[in-house]
Design goal:
This protein has eleven helices and eight strands. It has helices at residues 3-6, 69-80, 88-104, 116-130, 150-153, 157-177, 189-193, 211-224, 228-235, 239-246, 272-276, and strands spanning 17-24, 31-38, 55-59, 109-114, 136-140, 199-202, 260-265, 288-293. The radius of gyration is 20 Å and the shape is globular.
Length: 298
C-alpha cells in the first residue's frame, strides 16, 4: 500500500455516507456488519424513486481467516439446517435492523449482504416483512440450500425441466397428504411475504446461489403449462421442510422467497472464487439480465 492509498478516504464517503456503527460478533469479536448514515444527498435524488436511504445496514460474507473461520463456518451450517435465526450473530443483526427501522421508519432503511451476510440480510428482511415492514434489500450471492442442486448437476434443459416438474408434483402431493396447506391462518404469512421484493444478484456458475435461477424460472414455466395453482402450493414448501415437519421439527427454509427482483451475471467466470465473489458486482459494464418474479396469490 502506497502513501496515497493509506490516506485515501473510506469508499462510503464517495457516496456521502458516514460510518455510524459497527456490529461485532460476541463469539469471535469480528466485525460482521456496519451501519452507514447518509450525510447529504442532492435534492434531485428525492425527485425519483426510490429515495436515497438515511441508513444502510450491511453484512459481510464468510471470512477464511484464523480468527473468523470457525464461527463463520458454524453459521454456514446453521444456514443449511435453517437454524441461523437462533444464532447470537443474527439476533444482534436483527436487533440493529429493528431498532433503526423503529427510529426512522422502514422507507429510510436499506439492508444488504453478501454470501453469509446475504443470508443474514434475507432472514432479517423476511422477519421485518412479517411485521409489515418492507425494507429495500440487496442480496449478493445469497445461499440457496437444496438437497439436489439441479442447476449445477444437470446441464440438459429438458431433463432439468422434467426433474423440477416431478419435484413440484411430489412436494404439492406430500403437502396435500399432510393437509399442510389446509392449516393456513386467516392471513397466510406466505402471502404477506409476497409484498416484500428483495433484489437478488446471482451468478449461474456459483453453486451457492445459482439454484435461485431455476427456482424462479420454473414457476413461470408451470404457469405456462396451466398448473400454476399446483406450483403455488409447492413453492410455499421444500421437501426438507415437509419431512422435518412430519417428525415434529419446525424448519422454515431460508431461501423460500415469494417475490424478488433477480439480476443474473451472464458473463463467464473463471472459477468459483470469481463466480461467488462480491467484486464481480462492482464492474461498471457488467452484462446482466434482470427480471421481476412476483408470486401470484390467486
Amino acid at each position: 500500500m502506497n502513501q496515497h492509498e493509506a490516506h485515501a478516504s473510506p469508499w462510503w464517503e464517495r457516496f456521502h455516507f458516514q460510518l455510524n456503527n459497527v456490529l461485532v460478533d460476541d463469539s469471535d469479536l469480528s466485525y460482521f456488519g456496519a451501519i452507514y448514515e447518509l450525510k447529504y444527498a442532492h435534492p434531485c435524488f428525492y425527485q425519483s424513486s426510490p429515495h436515497p436511504p438515511r441508513y444502510v445496514i450491511a453484512f459481510r460474507g464468510t471470512l477464511i481467516t484464523n480468527f473468523t473461520r470457525y464461527e463463520d463456518m458454524k453459521l454456514n451450517m446453521r444456514c443449511v439446517f435453517a437454524k441461523l435465526e437462533k444464532s447470537l450473530r443474527f439476533r444482534k443483526a436483527f436487533e440493529a435492523v429493528w431498532n433503526t427501522v423503529v427510529t426512522v421508519g422502514p422507507a429510510n432503511v436499506w439492508i444488504a449482504g453478501h454470501s453469509l451476510g446475504a443470508a443474514i440480510a434475507m432472514l432479517a428482511g423476511k422477519n421485518m416483512a412479517k411485521s409489515r415492514y418492507h425494507l429495500k434489500t440487496y442480496l449478493f450471492n445469497p445461499p440457496f440450500i437444496s438437497v439436489l442442486p439441479i442447476e449445477q448437476m444437470i446441464k440438459n434443459e429438458t431433463l432439468t425441466d422434467g426433474v423440477r416438474i416431478a419435484g413440484s408434483f411430489m412436494t404439492a402431493g406430500i403437502a396435500a397428504a399432510m393437509n399442510v396447506h389446509g392449516e393456513e391462518t386467516e392471513e397466510d404469512l406466505f402471502n404477506v411475504l409476497s409484498e416484500w421484493m428483495p433484489h437478488l444478484f446471482v451468478n449461474p456458475s456459483d453453486p451457492i446461489c445459482s439454484e435461485f435461477i431455476g427456482y424462479f424460472q420454473h414457476r413461470e414455466k408451470m404457469d405456462e403449462m396451466g398448473v400454476g395453482k399446483l406450483e403455488r402450493i409447492a413453492t410455499k414448501f421444500s421437501f426438507g421442510s415437509l419431512v422435518s415437519g412430519a417428525i415434529g421439527i419446525d424448519m422454515e427454509p431460508l431461501h423460500i422467497v415469494p417475490t424478488a427482483y433477480m439480476t443474473v451475471n451472464i458473463s463467464p467466470s473463471e472459477d468459483f472464487r470469481q463466480a461467488h465473489g462480491i467484486v464481480q458486482w462492482w464492474q461498471p459494464h457488467l452484462p446482466c439480465q434482470s427480471n421481476l418474479y412476483k408470486f401470484k396469490t390467486l
